[in-house]
Write a structure and sequence with these properties.
Length: 499
């Protein structure tokens, strides 16, 4: 008995076959898609260039349509294969071979600048409030000191201060006598042996002494003593004979800068073990540098005389010099909140660039000599060295007043642009090229450069390259020279086809 298999309609057979092809194509997409894409790109290039030339001359290439497997999808005249050593020689790596991205480009101008101190913050003068003789100098010029560090000890010789303290102690003694007399008269008055008017007179006398003591306290404070020092004199009933002057806080002006003798102090010279914790975080210590030391042991000093000068380089200003024709553009950048870049030239190496700095303010007048308007940018400093030698701490800051640099200030903004480093673009005559990665090769692609400055190039998004294409971000000039050297070799009998 024969079994008859029903025949399927022809359209269902074609549908099933097509479905199988689609499924297989989707599964194997990773294998055939790169080759297909490369073939399509090569075909488009052939229509743009080769096809046009062939039609003009009417010549037929003996190798037309024949691409050798080793160089499939590459035009040997515009494609370059680099060894691993060559890639390293021109600085190409995963970090410098990146896909193209659309980004906002800010056209900018460059102005000269100088690092300067912050007025009233960077430099601190430590002065003595009283006349005396220097008995100890604890700090060393050039070392770094922390707030609260003992700097000087002074034996006081100020005659007015001695008299003021003596008068203060005399009034304190009289007040003690009056208080004891009031206590005695209070008991006697209760018994009726002494009239109450006598007790009232003593209370009035005590009130007068309280008023005089308050005035005397203010007089001592005018001489430079703190409230704590005046209280110390009142408690101990001893004259203040010596001052200890300590490192002040930059942003705080408390009275702890001057302290009495016998107070707990921290010496300027200290061991590394004592401050190992602070050394791990230099920002917490906020070191000050003893820039100038103006006195020595045994020296007589007058009230108000400068003992030393401390500098705080934790934060500085960059002073930009803008010319008159640039003032409007610079003010517009400040109003828009655009960030500026600081460029430090380093001979022999790449420039050091600090990005994203904010303009603090503009000066309110133009310099008469240079005809420039000064503007200021905040600069946070960095510690490059922090060491201790013979118990003293010495630090070195990366940025110092007087350093010259340049400020790059944006003046115009273009959105959705292809922006490449200037090293990614090669220039020859009227042509500009970039090098696109294509498998193990780099294909030279002609592009239109809309704008170029010292650091960046803006490429026209005209279809020559697209966002997502992987290109070399540097070394374009070296690769262009390599292509020229390659083209200048002997004549190939295969007309450009290398086996």
């Amino acid at each position: 008995m024969k079994i008859r298999i029903p025949k399927l309609p022809l359209k269902w057979i074609w549908f099933t076959a097509g479905l199988i092809v689609v499924v297989i194509g989707g599964v194997t997409r990773k294998q055939w898609n790169p080759q297909t894409k490369s073939w399509v790109q090569q075909t488009v290039k052939g229509f743009r260039s080769g096809g046009e030339q062939g039609g003009a001359h009417g010549e037929v290439d003996d190798h037309a349509g024949h691409d050798h497997a080793a160089h499939a999808g590459h035009d040997e005249g515009t494609s370059l294969e680099l060894s691993a050593q060559a890639l390293r020689n021109i600085g190409l790596s995963d970090a410098t071979i990146q896909p193209i991205k659309l980004e906002t480009f800010r056209k900018s101008i460059t102005v000269p600048a100088l690092i300067v101190e912050r007025p009233g913050r960077t430099r601190v003068q430590v002065a003595t409030p009283m006349t005396g003789v220097i008995t100890h100098v604890h700090a060393v010029q050039g070392e770094s000191v922390e707030p609260g560090t003992l700097l000087f000890q002074i034996r006081l010789t100020h005659e007015d201060l001695v008299q003021a303290q003596t008068e203060f102690l005399r009034m304190l003694g009289e007040l003690d006598v009056e208080e004891r007399e009031i206590v005695r008269l209070t008991e006697v008055t209760k018994s009726g042996a002494v009239p109450g008017t006598l007790l009232l007179e003593r209370q009035y006398a005590k009130d007068k002494l309280d008023v005089q003591l308050r005035a005397q306290r203010e007089a001592l404070r005018l001489h430079g003593l703190s409230e704590e020092q005046v209280d110390q004199i009142a408690r101990g009933r001893r004259l203040l004979r010596e001052l200890q002057i300590f490192t002040p806080l930059i942003d705080s002006h408390g009275e702890e800068e001057l302290k009495l003798t016998r107070s707990h102090v921290q010496n300027a010279s200290y061991t590394q073990e004592e401050h190992a914790g602070n050394h791990s975080d230099p920002k917490q210590t906020a070191p000050l540098i003893l820039q100038d030391l103006n006195v020595h042991k045994g020296q007589t000093i007058s009230a108000g005389e400068t003992l030393c000068v401390l500098t705080d380089f934790d934060e500085l200003f960059i002073e930009g010099l803008s010319f008159e024709q640039d003032i409007t553009q610079l003010r517009q950048a400040s109003e828009n909140g655009w960030k500026v870049d600081a460029i430090f030239e380093q001979p022999g190496t790449a420039d050091h660039v600090i990005k994203g700095l904010e303009i603090a303010y503009f000066a309110n007048q133009i310099d008469r000599d240079s005809r420039t308007l000064h503007f200021y940018v905040r600069l946070l400093n960095e510690l490059t060295k922090d060491q201790r030698t013979n118990g003293n701490r010495y630090v070195e800051w990366r940025y110092l007043p007087g350093q010259r640099l340049q400020l790059r200030v944006p003046i115009q903004e273009w959105a959705e642009q292809i922006v490449l480093p200037v090293e990614a673009v090669a220039h020859e005559g009227a042509e500009f090229f970039i090098f696109q990665q294509n498998g193990g090769h780099f294909d030279r692609v002609p592009v239109h450069v809309k704008y170029r400055d010292q650091y960046s190039a803006v490429i026209d998004n005209d279809g020559s390259i697209f966002p997502g294409d992987i290109v070399a971000m540097r070394g374009a000039h070296q690769m262009q020279m390599a292509l020229k050297n390659k083209a200048g070799g002997g004549v190939d009998p295969h007309a450009g086809h290398n086996h």
